[in-house]
């Protein structure tokens, strides 16, 4: 998983509250669905196979996905494009995958110390989780708004197009939530997600909300014209399904779309080089360090996040 988006996350209480208010509709939608559980909805996602049909002969035999973008070990999971109603569950999955705990009690503490501190820690972590969900959901809505309001399918925006930052493509490997599931507040069961969008290739680690990127570039006086290129982010795989090469399959899928559908020859991403699993996944897939970092004086440890690129066939 890529953790760079989340290392930049909490920079003010005010922003957290704004994001929480902005995402009220997501909470309301989830509550409304909870009150209507007797009528379990079908999968509202758009199956990728309907937008991007593939021939069996073009599928990598080593891939965990078949020609219909279904998980070979469990075809009930299918790779799909998210729509508006799917964003709350997608945001919740991303937050759970990356983690949102603000505080963790040390294992060196005595049982009595943990007993005293645990209620406060749980309260703070609960607030942290709500803020994280609000921020991620608001960011997703901001980044896919343009795609949702247009009939784009999986086509990529023109780099010079106004609002290109709001036309991200978000894919999830998911299925309808079964009736006997414990996830009664979920509408879809997601085990993997990935996002593809255009991003200026200046090594800047993007905020969740695109307008914050514009502010930071102004603060850092980086307003020179920078070419926009495909950018891979928010690659997540549910812990119970790791080790099946799902992450690799999702990466290959967005690379294929960026090259054959969007028409680009390169794709970029950020990865924490200390995240061994993610680093090995990307380097083994052919990504190379650009050698450039976004390092304004306020960046802190985020300046150490690696910026990588891959040449697409």
Automatic annotation (TrEMBL):
One Pfam family this sequence matches: Acetyltransf_1
A GO term for molecular function: acyltransferase activity, transferring groups other than amino-acyl groups
Keywords annotated in UniProt: Acyltransferase, Signal, Transferase
Matching Gene3D superfamilies: 3.40.630.30
Domain of life: Eukaryota
Signal sequence region: 1-26
Residue ranges of every copy of the N-acetyltransferase domain listed in the record: 231-310
The protein's name: N-acetyltransferase domain-containing protein
Organism: Fistulifera solaris
């Amino acid at each position: 998983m890529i953790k760079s988006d989340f290392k930049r996350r909490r920079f003010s209480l005010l922003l957290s509250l704004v994001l929480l208010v902005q995402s009220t509709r997501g909470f309301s939608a989830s509550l409304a669905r909870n009150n209507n559980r007797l009528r379990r909805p079908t999968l509202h996602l758009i199956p990728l196979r309907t937008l991007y049909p593939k021939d069996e002969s073009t599928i990598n035999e080593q891939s965990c996905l078949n020609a219909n973008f279904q998980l070979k070990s469990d075809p009930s999971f299918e790779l799909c494009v998210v729509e508006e109603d799917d964003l709350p569950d997608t945001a919740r999955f991303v937050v759970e995958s990356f983690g949102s705990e603000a505080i963790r009690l040390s294992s060196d503490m005595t049982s009595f110390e943990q007993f005293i501190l645990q209620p406060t820690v749980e309260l703070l972590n609960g607030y942290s989780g709500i803020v994280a969900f609000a921020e991620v959901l608001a960011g997703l809505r901001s980044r896919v708004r343009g795609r949702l309001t247009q009939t784009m399918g999986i086509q990529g925006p023109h780099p010079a197009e106004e609002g290109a930052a709001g036309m991200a493509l978000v894919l999830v490997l998911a299925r309808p939530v079964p009736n006997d599931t414990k996830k009664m507040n979920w509408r879809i069961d997601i085990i993997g997600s990935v996002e593809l969008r255009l991003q200026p290739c200046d090594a800047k680690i993007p905020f969740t909300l695109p307008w914050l990127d514009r502010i930071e570039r102004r603060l850092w006086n980086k307003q020179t014209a920078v070419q926009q290129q495909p950018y891979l982010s928010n690659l997540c795989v549910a812990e119970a399904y790791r080790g099946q090469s799902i992450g690799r399959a999702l990466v290959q899928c967005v690379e294929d779309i960026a090259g054959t559908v969007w028409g680009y020859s390169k794709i970029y991403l950020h990865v924490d080089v200390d995240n061994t699993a993610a680093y090995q996944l990307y380097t083994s897939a052919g990504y190379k360090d650009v050698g450039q970092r976004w390092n304004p004086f306020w960046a802190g440890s985020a300046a150490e996040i690696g910026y990588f690129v891959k040449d697409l066939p």
